[in-house]
Amino acid sequence: KPVLGDIQIASIRSEEIQNLLVAKSKTLSYSVVKKINFLLSELFQYAHSEGDIAKNPMRNVKMPKKTLFKPEREIIALESEEVRALEQVAVMKRKNGLPLITHANLIVFLVHTGLRCGELQALKWSDIDFCSKTVTVNKNLSMVCDRDRNGERKNHKKAKIKGTKTTSGNRIVPLNTKAIAALKNLHTIYRKKGICSPNVVASLNGNMLSNDQLQRVLHRVLKYAEISKPFTLHQLRHTFATQTLNAGVPITVVSKWLGHANVSVTYNTYIHVLESVETTAVTLLEAI
Fold first, then answer.
1. Closest CA relative to residue 171, chosen from 261, 267, 269
2. Most buried one in 34, 86, 101, 144, CB count within 10 A?
3. Total-model pTM
4. Pairing mode, strands 171-174 and 134-137
5. Secondary element (H or E) of residue 199
6. What angle do helix axes 234-246 and 104-111 make, rounded to 10 degrees?
7. Strand 171-174 relative to strand 128-129: parallel, antiparallel, unpaired?
8. 22 and 110 share a domain?
9. Facing residues of 134 across strands?
């Protein structure tokens, strides 16, 4: 809706769908329009196989050229010294000995694991293996529209824990020393404040923290760390990917740790980092 929503499915022509994709290419990214194209392809293929339409109009539809799309958003990542500043804020204490920011260690954990925000929110302490220094990621928290019995949307959303975004999202991520320390510090803080919850992300009353609450924690940490970049929780994931690639970790391994569907997703997202690494490699080549 509104382009195709009021047209009978058998009356929808290839030209109308093609025009829709071209129009979307002017306001949306290539990856989003590609998903729209895939969704429509699946829909019309099913309608054709069920005999609802005589021919599939998607057979004559082509994805618009990449040059028509607006540029992808620039990937913003923290520098190494900025990551160190976050870590220092996480251990800062008030005069009474309690932490300056209760959940600051969650920010440190994210930047050293690359987990998605929803994966962190769904994480339980039982998913952490301190002996093997790993975290098992197999679920994701998402906000879904609450509906009444007639299927009508209500004015609010509710949290729902589901499987990960993709099958490759089910993974085991190694924990470095700083990620382990962040978890142990967080567990100690919870114990001192009387927070009792099986969830790694928990409020003072044991409930789960929302995206907005976690974003406010990040803003507070950035403020005390004197970092003025317009930063979001997802960019902590970009920071993890950038730092590991710059450290020389193979892209196939980084892709696995991030839970990407395939390595091409990682490559296309972080090609600028790989180009930087290649420039350094050329310099090293001169020294041989």
1. 261
2. 86
3. 0.76
4. antiparallel
5. none
6. 40
7. unpaired
8. no
9. 129, 174
* 5-63: pLDDT as tens digits: 889 999 999 999 999 999 998 888 888 899 999 999 999 999 999 999 999 999 999 99
DSSP code at position 63: P
CA 168 to chain CA centroid, Å, is 14
CA distance 101 to 79: 22
Structural domains counted in the chain: 2
Please check whether residue 173 is in contact with residue 114, taking contact to mean a CB–CB distance below 8 angstroms: yes
Pull the structure tokens for residue 100. Answer: 């300056």
Whether residues 175 and 121 fall in one domain: yes
- Does a structural domain hold residue 3? no
Residues 23 and 119 in one domain: no
CATH number of residue 56's parent domain = 1.10.150.130
> Do 194 and 64 share a structural domain?
no
Instruction: Report d(CA 270, CA 275) in Å as an integer.
Output: 9
Place of tokens 């998913």: 127
Domain of residue 203, residue span: 80-244
158, 47: one domain: no
